[in-house]
Design brief:
The chain is built from three helices and two strands; from the N terminus they run ααβαβ. It has 70 residues and is α+β, with helices and mostly antiparallel strands.
């Protein structure tokens, strides 16, 4: 897809995309997960372990999502 940047700027337009779906689609998915007790898979780190979490991210050793907690 080719888009003219000046047309966007002067026309006050924007192009956006999402890989996760529209807000109604996300709401449907979250409701389904809640009804069926489907929980996310996360790797928890204490806030004091933020450097270790970042290092795992950089090394590509994190699976799914990293969450920092107090």
């Amino acid at each position: 897809m080719q888009i003219n940047l000046l047309t966007l700027l002067f026309g006050q337009k924007m192009v956006s995309s999402t890989g996760i779906g529209s807000p109604p689609t996300m709401a449907t998915m979250l409701n389904f997960a809640a009804r069926h007790n489907i929980l996310p898979t996360v790797e928890m780190f204490k806030l004091s372990e933020v450097n270790e979490a970042i290092e795992k991210l950089r090394e590509g050793k994190v699976r799914y999502r990293v969450v920092l907690k107090h």
